[in-house]
Please model this.
Amino acid sequence: MENLKIAAQTYNEVGSIVELEQKISAASATGKEAKQTVRKYESQIILYGGARRMLEQAGISLKGLNINKLKSEYQALTAQKNRSAEAPPFPKPSCKISSVGL
Model:
């Protein structure tokens, strides 16, 4: 019903069916482009929303958040992890532990 009202009002403004059809097709194309854009970025929007909620739940203020600092800390932790993964494992003990007297 609401669409019908809008169409009638638009027809009164443009004055002809051809112009009305052009306006409707232009509005429809714009709406389709908007929907495609939302779909294209929908997963990122969901991920960012989830990350925002998790940060808020952890008590981290988003206003004072320094992204560059977080990135550098993350890179440092990743490098530390990689170094520890490359390090040789701890040597096995050479003596056996006896369970005598237990």
